[in-house]
Design goal:
- By secondary structure, the protein is of the alpha/beta class.
- The protein has 6 helices and 7 strands.
- It has one domain.
- A 7-stranded mixed β-sheet has the order 1-2-3-4-7-6-5, sandwiched between helices.
- The chain starts with 6 loop residues before the first helix and ends in a 13-residue tail after the last strand.
- The C terminus is likely disordered.
Amino acid sequence: MVRRRNIFQKRYPITGDFVELTKTWNPDAISILVKLVWEGYDLLVSEFLSQINCDGTEEYLEISITQALALKIDSSMTGYEPFAVKQEWYEFETSKSSRGQPPRYDIAFILRDNERIILPLEAKILKSDVDVTEYVKEINNNFITCRYAPFSSQGGMLGYLFSGDPNKAFINIETKVPCTLSNHPDFPTRDHKTSDHQRIVPSGKSYPVNFRCHHLLFKIIATPTNNISSVE
């Protein structure tokens, strides 16, 4: 069955790699992008999470944290970046069927000049530093298969860590993918590592084979209720 083109394919018939295209704006574009994510997390903690007792039992926990984070990332941006940030953005390129639901990213950085080109971030709740199964599945089943980030040689995983040691979580991720995690030189004080992979590119496609995954672990710490200011 021959798939019909969608409107994004019609508007942007020529694609490239998100990473290389943004380097024409700034050679450190990806570090700037990731810095925005960390700044968004800092705002999330100071302006949102510090005001509640988030114990990990709330409804729609992963989605709601991600929604709040995406807003904070957006507020950290200058408006001059060559990309926009959106929550729950669809990837039509790798949709298997016009009748099926296309993949949907938790957070997407979308190239303003070509909206088909996306650098995605996927988020997972980590109840503890050993709770990495679903996190690992996203890497192996989606990023390495090119289902996610077909037009980007980099992408990211966000781990919302509720308890345990980030270093132990990194060890468990490294073991279960498996992969080698390396420190990011631009973020030495953050719980941030990267892994490099050879992707499985579908026949007939020219997606980037070499892929770098950023791993950002965000500590989600419950705030004692007696420290939360009340509203009279």
